[in-house]
# Entry
Amino acid sequence: MRRPSWVPEGTDLDKPNAARVYDYYLGGSHNFEVDREMARKAIGLWPELPQIMRSNRAFLRRAVTYLAERGVTRFLDIGSGIPTFGAVHEIARTIRPESKVVYVDRDPVAVAHSRLLLEGDPASAVVQADLRDLDDLLAHPEVVELVAAGEPVAVLLVAVAHFVSDDEDPWKLIGVLRDALPPGSALVLSHASLEGRPDQAEDHQKLYRMTPTPLTMRTREQITAMFAGFELVEPGVVYLPQWRPDQPHTVGEHPERMAGVAGVGIRS
# Structure
């Protein structure tokens, strides 16, 4: 197929990519038929996947808006995928035009796409790094510059920590991140929850075991513990649609069906 202008040279157009599949779930246009085919197979096993992904992205939008309205202008988006269709820099700059964003992803395809899309944007940077190797992640010049000014930084771990196994200790990793942040910084986190759909939890995890990124769903108590050292913003750790909804009716009758919880915490 002909390579679109947003696709870097050398990209394999015949192999699905998780970041482009996610873009498809969101209703975006930065995906190929091979990605859509993979998404359709996943939806066949888990019909609510697109709604869950969109609910997760809606939480990100509300959380970034909340923090930008309170003066935060520095954002570190870890596990960002491809920053399209309501990306952090677009949301933040509608409120704080001076906002700086560093996008971090370990997937070289997502990073290459992101760098091409953000070419010419001096206030956005893209770093290839892994949450599980924080020595490397925090040493990147773009990340050092973001944190060094001493201004509050919002770290986004949106649908990321559930890809870190218990053996890799996401609680410890988040603690290291917290200690590297200036006072007043924030943690924005969403996570697949066991409580939301206990009848389907094992099937969901089996689905992801067939991919390079297996999923570990956790209890709300385990997820809340990830905010150690942060003061939770009301309403705390709740189902995705329940976190500061734009309108009460947008929560729906069964927010637990979104199979994930989310929260925002502020570092003292």
